[in-house]
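S1.2 Input.
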Amino acid sequence: MIILVMGVAGSGKTTIGKLLADTLQWDFYDADNFHSPENIEKMQRGIPLDDADRLPWLQDIQTAIKKWLEENQNVVLACSALKASYRQYFLIGDERIKLVYLKGSFELIQKRLQERTNHFMPANLLKSQLDILEEPAESLYIDISAPPDAIVQNIRDGLGI
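S1.3 Output.
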């Protein structure tokens, strides 16, 4: 199974994804690690990525997902997956892929981003992420205002794992 933990920057994808993977004793991957150095530099300068910037990134993640499925690997993948068109690269018609959407208020996420250090995504890009966000119709919605352990348990309960 692949659990795709999605949401905007600051929603807790990496924190929750790692904790969930540790709890399940699965592998964890962060989609941020698939970005090119050029994309990371652009974001560090506060410039939002466009679809052309994202295309090679989406294709690389899709390749990894196909490989994990072929190898029957259990994976938790943290990925923003903001648009439905992006998610089409990941949700490739295999029911072993589960989508979990971490949802929270602008104020909570903004606060988290302002407190975060050592990350290439500046807090001022939150609005651009929210502007392009297309909330998924088919996913497990998880409120991020709870403590991380409770969020992980809510995901496990919601997915029955």
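S1.4 Remarks. The CA atoms of residues 82 and 133 lie 5 Å apart.
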